[in-house]
Amino acid sequence: MAKAFTIDLGATSAKCAFFDNDKVIAKFTFSTNPRENLLENIGKEAREVAEKNNIDMDNLDFIGIAVCGIVDNAEGKVIYSTNLGWRDYPVKEEMTRIFKNEKVVVLNDAKAATFGEWSKGLKKVPDSMALFTIGTGVGGGAIFNGRLVFGDNTGLPSEPGHGGGFQDEIQCGCGLKGCIEPISSASGIERELIAKAKVSTGPLGERYQKLGDNMHIKDIADLFQEKDKDVIAVFYKALEPLAKIISVIIHFFDVSMIVIGGGPSNLGKPLLDLLKKQAANYVLPDFYERLNIVQASLSDLVGAWGVYEYGKAELKF
């Protein structure tokens, strides 16, 4: 068993947790704004939380961090994070300095979420799975033969939201053609919900009259559950590019499970059923019969859990 402090560093907040013997013994959330001295400030907050909870920061087995962006976990470096404004940032070196601990584990946030769901949420069953996180963008990761996939070329896979030619309606900000992110992300879904709401004469239009452009997915969750035709139409269209990339993964790798995480996944089984309905258009019958799409089971601490579990595995605790 291990004692550790881990950080899931996202675009707007850092979700942090102290672990001891596979249990969360303290946790806190820290805003990522302002960006200046961000890790230093998280470190100061961590020491205050540790003191209040009688946790010895100098007796931790390791420190872990998951970062939104493209991460070289072997070097412990963030190659690029648009949301954080980091490029070639030596996060492992900084974490070692700030926390005075030589054992630092660094992962991309989507890989951390994948390993967290598989190891903690699914208890390491099955041996193969792919996870998609639907948020500001679309991230993801995979487990093959009980191992987190890093690839044999760049070591950077975690960007299923980009490339592939899965849609030709909206140009992605990354510059590539056909990315699923502009349509299947939570941001894309909300943009289409607002566009639909502006012309809707039904409940969605009425909701927009109250909330305006500040309307989010959580604000129309009840309409989704009630199968409002305008809302369902938006989601069905938005899920099509995601269904297409899932079909490629299923046909090529035959993974046992697809896990859907991120804010929209809180809509539960009706969302998964809608996604599976779209997948029926793109997955061969023999594969479709055994297509298993499930909701992520861990919530806000999935990334923190993922880094903790990965750190234990890699550092042999």
What features would you highlight for this structure?
kinase activity; 11 helices; kinase; 317 residues; alpha/beta; globular; five-stranded mixed sheet; Nucleotidyltransferase, domain 5; Glucokinase; ATPase_NBD
Structural summary, described in words:
- GO terms for molecular function: kinase activity.
- Belongs to the ROK (NagC/XylR) family.
- Pfam families: ROK.
- This is Glucokinase.
- Keywords: Kinase, Transferase.
- The chain is α/β, with parallel strands linked by helices and 317 residues long.
- The protein has two domains: 3-109 and 300-315, 2-Layer Sandwich (Nucleotidyltransferase, domain 5); 123-295, 2-Layer Sandwich (Nucleotidyltransferase, domain 5), CATH 3.30.420.
- It has eleven helices and 13 strands.
- The strands form three sheets. The protein has a five-stranded mixed β-sheet, sandwiched between helices. The protein has a five-stranded mixed β-sheet with strand order 11-10-9-12-13, sandwiched between helices.
- Strand 1 (3-9) and strand 2 form a beta hairpin.
- Helix 3 crosses helix 11, helix 5 packs antiparallel against helix 8 and helix 8 crosses helix 9.
- The radius of gyration is 20 Å and the shape is globular.
- The termini are close together.
